[in-house]
Amino acid sequence: MRAQVEDVIEIIRPAIQADGGDIILREVDEDSGVVTVELTGACVSCPASTVTMKAGIERIMKDRVPGVTSVVQPDEGAELGTSVTL
């Protein structure tokens, strides 16, 4: 499955790079079907990056790689903000 995911990323990468960003594969969990990727460059500050992730990358990945259930970024689900101790 990882090889298939890597192949799809290489297909997607030029479109993301054309907008000043890039995509890095971090992890493929074959048991759950979750693929973790990191968007870098211009994608980090782009307000459309969530749409790119879900409507673009995730849809293409699910279509081309059997068993993929979702595509997430490394920090998805992490608590936002910082803790302060007084």
Structural overview:
A three-stranded mixed sheet has the order 1-2-3, with helices on one face. It is α+β, with helices and mostly antiparallel strands. Helix 1 packs antiparallel against helix 2. The protein is built from two helices and three strands, in the order H-E-E-H-E. It has one domain: 2-Layer Sandwich (GMP Synthetase, Chain A, domain 3). 38% of the residues lie in helices and 23% in strands. The protein starts with a helix and ends in a 14-residue tail after the last strand.
Please supply descriptive tags for the structure shown above.
86 residues, alpha+beta, GMP Synthetase, Chain A, domain 3, three-stranded mixed β-sheet, 2 helices
Instruction: Return the string of H and E elements.
Output: HEEHE
Q: Taking Cα atoms only, what radius of gyration do you get, to the nearest Å?
A: 14 Å
The number of helical segments is 2
Annotation, overall tally of beta strands: 3
Q: Could you name the CATH homologous superfamily? A: Fe-S cluster assembly (FSCA)
Helix content: 25-40%
The CATH class label is Alpha Beta
Topology, pairings included?
Elements: H1 2-18, E1 21-29, E2 34-41, H2 49-64, E3 70-72
Parallel strand pairs: 2-3
Antiparallel strand pairs: 1-2
